[in-house]
Design a protein that fits this description.
158 residues, alpha+beta, four-stranded antiparallel beta sheet, Zinc finger PMZ-type domain-containing protein
Length: 158
């Protein structure tokens, strides 16, 4: 934010007037699990761009049909899954399990660990499924630090 303030004090003031819970990851609700922090409105606008100039009823009908097709495509793909988790989540977990080999972990208690990775320290708590970084709570997907802590103490990370 200091970089933003240096470039544009007006932009900094504008952002600071918006409650942080809407744009700052550390202030997101920890009970809502989502790995998507991009601008949903921009994505939606680009998705319906070719229908934008239609009358309202036709616009809504085209959006409805597009959503139904997407749901059907996703449902058909989901029928082939071999896990309760999505393929993307499974691949992230596999990737993080591999990366966990390079994380140094110190036990700080029954469920708490101090983790060092890339010259940075984090505190992990497996019982509360939380991390100083806050991403585990926001996405619901454990990071490599959690997997290494689980391996160290013999716990399976869900």
């Amino acid at each position: 934010m200091e970089k933003l303030r240096a470039v544009s004090p007006n932009a900094y003031k504008y952002m600071m007037d918006i409650p942080q819970k809407y744009w700052c990851m550390h202030a997101f609700n920890k009970h809502v699990k989502s790995g998507h922090t991009t601008n949903v409105i921009e994505a939606f606008n680009s998705w319906v761009n070719k229908y934008r100039n239609l009358p309202a009823l036709l616009l809504l009908e085209n959006i409805r049909c597009k959503i139904m097709k997407r749901i059907n495509t996703k449902f058909s793909a989901a029928q082939k899954w071999t896990s309760n988790l999505t393929p993307m989540v499974n691949s992230k977990i596999a990737e993080r399990l591999e990366e966990a080999r390079f994380v140094d972990v110190l036990c700080a208690g029954e469920h708490e660990f101090e983790v060092m990775n890339e010259q940075k320290f984090f505190v992990m708590n497996l019982k509360t499924q939380s991390c100083d970084r806050g991403r585990w709570e926001v996405t619901g997907i454990p990071y490599k630090h959690a997997f290494e802590c689980g391996r160290l103490c013999g716990q399976v990370i869900n």
